[in-house]
Structure formats: structure tokens, C-alpha cells
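Friendly challenge for the regulars: who can give me the C-alpha cells for this chain first? No prize, just bragging rights.
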Amino acid sequence: MSHSIFYPTHMFFSDPDLDLKIMLWLLGMAAGIAGVIYWKWKQVCPTILFFSLLANAMVYLNSGSRFFDIYSLKWIVVFTLEYWPYLNTLFLIICVSLFLKKRYAK
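First reply, four minutes later:
Bragging rights claimed.
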């Protein structure tokens, strides 16, 4: 993969163990935010969408780090850069269609 503006090349910190802890903490924060969204709206679709977007952003920001090489997790980088955005788009289309169907159904 080439390095460009769309492929970050840094870790949060230089220690992979600390980087793992930070990523898990951020993933927990994403789950907490999704939980608040579910508690407020009582709908699964926006909850899944926001959790997916936040988790994708968290992994994307760290996708160019040595962390994934050290733990042999390059498949996560490939999934994050090549497939996850399409899943998020699909989630968005489903959420919008369900919202419109519910709002304008008679």
C-alpha cells in the first residue's frame, strides 16, 4: 500500500501495548456513545451506524502503525480501508430508508 493522505502512517504512541490499550479504550468509548444513542432514540439502526462510524474512524487513524504488523493483524487494515466504508454506506442507506418508510408510511 502506498502512503498518502488517505493512509495514515503513525501510531498514537510508539509502544504497541499502550497503543492497544488506547484503541480498546476508544472502542469502549464508541460503544458507550452508541449505548447513549440507543437509550435516547430506542432504535437499533442509528446505534449500529454511529458505532460503526466511530470504530471505523478509530481504526483508520491508527491503520498505518506498526501495531498491526507486530500482532499480525494486517487483515484489519485491509478491511478498514477497503470494505468498512462500503458497509457504513450500506448502513446509512438502510437507516435512511427505514426512517423515510416510518415517517411517510400511511
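Residues 74-104 form the longest helix (31 residues). Helices lie at 16-41, 44-61, 67-70, 74-104. Your move, everyone else.
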